[in-house]
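seq as requested:
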Amino acid sequence: MPRIRLTVAYVGTRYQGWQIQGQGATIQGAIEDKLTRICGELVRVHGSGRTDSGVHALAQVAHFDVPESKAHIPWQQALNAMLPDDIAILDAVEAPEDFHARFSVRSKRYAYTIWTEPHFVLPQRAPFVWAVRGLDFEAMDQAAQELAGTHDFAAFQNAGTEIKGTVRTLEPILRTQGQSPAEWIFRFQADGFLKQMVRNLMGLLVEAGRGGLAPGEVRAILEGCDRRKAPATAPARGLTLEEVIY
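struct tokens:
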């Protein structure tokens, strides 16, 4: 059966994440519903990985298999005509039969956006940022340096997913200014991420920026492998999956 690879962008605000759940709207569910209507049979969509409830994506990757008779449908146009405005198919191409959206992944990059203006949050940006005031960015950068490298990130994994191991390699965390002087973007790239790992890392960086955690304490939290000893999880709305690398 032909295999189709999708690149998908979405605003995650009103969805319970990527993966189909017992109840509530999901990105996977919305796409599968439209594919099933087009093909006349259930079509399963496989994503590169879960994104949490409320998390956004600029370039999620997914694949599905279709009957030979449906291989030449213009999938991008067909799906975009049916999907809601907060989901868009950026690309749809035929992929090799051994391509797998999840198991072929080499690394992923996420961006987390902080809003620092002390008096307001721009309404157009509110669904995509975490408003935090009075941050010491130098302290945040120092803490970020401690996180880069190959470590056991068990202290930054929330419960809920069965996995084989918690060791990951995290590239140096990059901080850049966004379109507004009030916006700062932190980018995280790794060979894999644990459940809510980026949000937990961002929570630690903000705690360091607020002065509640010394950068020198980061190493002890990593080595302790205890989620209870690490700061709280950052909100989902500031997080965006930017790129999946194969």
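Residues 27-39 form the longest helix (13 residues).
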